Amino acid sequence: MISALHPQGKPGVIRLLDPCCGTGAALADIKQSLVYVQSYSAGQSLVETYGVEFDKERAWQAKDLLYRVLHADVHDTVIKARSVGLLFLNPPYGFGVSDNANLDRNNLDTHEKAERLERTFLKKTAPMLMPGGVLVYIVPFYAIDEEIRTYLARNFRQVHFFMAPEQAYKQCVIFGVKVKPGHPDKETLAMLTRAQAGELADQVLPTEWCEQPYTVPTATEGEMDFRAVRIDGDQLAEELKHFEGNLLWTGFERHFRQSRVGHRRPLRDLSRWHLALALAAGQVTGLVRSPAGRALLIKGDTFKKKDRSVSVETDEKGNVSQTITMIDRFVPVITAIEFTPGPDLGRIVRIS
Q1: Which are the contacts of 251, defined by CB distance < 8 A and separation ≥ 6?
Q2: Which of 130, 215, 232, 342 could lock 82 by a disulfide, CB 3.0 to 4.6 Å apart?
């Protein structure tokens, strides 16, 4: 499969996505191959690998191999549409509802109501491929039902089918290039119908790809949106590492060091306007002591108050008009807690 994939050779970012990544080994190998091929071309792209894994142990192993990994159900993730150049999809096999959920094995109608996971994952993740993006779809050949065949024939071109060399799970490998949805391609439908019937069992994936390789395109979208709807504490801590430079705590000294700088007395007494500005800026705060020993913990603030005035005028004809004037006035306020030992300790004091 790796030998069938080549990078576009255009500077930028190539994004690879595996929504069922396991330990991340497969996607890491694909990235290594693309980076190696790029080393012989003029255009160099950054290759980013994204994975989603439901099992916690495998997810944390994948985090050591891939660029970004979410320990989550793929249905609980937000991944930007048309943002990845390669979708490596090897989903869980079988029906969405297990046999012990009161399903009658002999009732075909009941089975029809339980959608196969191969189909669910394909329809969920294929929209994340950008136009021209490459799909590598690994499923049991018998799972390629009519709905999957139609979906592939409508949304992908250059579709190739191969049986996997290892047949423990009767797997096949399907390649395709994402295109704008249209009418199902008749040749693709016919080929996939034969594949599901087992007529292409001798068409095994070659060791080395001899045809025109599939080109994994460079991303045309901007920033990648890749996140889980619900995450645990361990993943939250890991996510914060990616944004450490933008967090407030790392710049704490830069933002708050002025509190440690000694304050110089002003050249003249503050007017009420200066006091209001100082209160509004939060500069009047902290523990203050008077020469007599009284201690107050103060916090300054400013609030807006409206002064209302009413004037009544009577003209020569006896008509009465009333004018209401509202004037905004900013009032400085200091709220304090009495810290002086004694009977008033803890009392709230308001100064305005």
Answers
A1: none
A2: 130
Instruction: Return the pLDDT at 255.
Output: 66
Per-position b or e across 8-36, b if 16+ CB within 10 A of its CB: beeeebbbbbbbbbbbbebbbebbebbee
CA distance linking residue 256 with residue 87, whole number of Å: 46
Query: Quick one: which of 147, 212, 154 has its CA closest to 178?
Result: 154
Map residue 40 onto helix, strand or coil. coil
The pLDDT tens digits for 197-252 are 999 999 999 999 988 999 999 987 778 899 998 888 888 888 787 777 777 777 77
Q: What is the pLDDT of residues 321-342, one digit of tens each?
A: 889 999 988 777 888 899 999 8
**Cα separation of 19 and 91, whole Å?**
8
Q: Are 84 and 133 in contact (CB under 8 A)?
A: yes
Burial class (CB in 10 A: 0-12, 13-18, 19+), 2: middle
Provide the residue type at 277 as one letter: L
Q: How many CA atoms lie within 13 A of 97 on its CB side?
A: 12
Q: Are 66 and 22 in contact (CB under 8 A)?
A: no
Structure-token pair, residue 223: 């920033």
* Chain position carrying tokens 């979708």: 87
What is the number of alpha carbons within 13 Å of residue 138 lying toward its C-beta? 20
Q: Which two tokens stand for residue 336?
A: 């304090």
Q: What tokens were used for 152?
A: 């592939």
Cβ of 275: how many Cβ atoms within 10 Å?
16
The values of phi and psi at residue 196, to 5°, are: -65, -30
Radius of gyration of the chain (CA): 34
Neighbouring C-alpha atoms within 13 Å toward the C-beta of 270: 12
Are residues 84 and 132 in contact, defined by beta-carbon separation less than 8 angstroms?
Answer: no
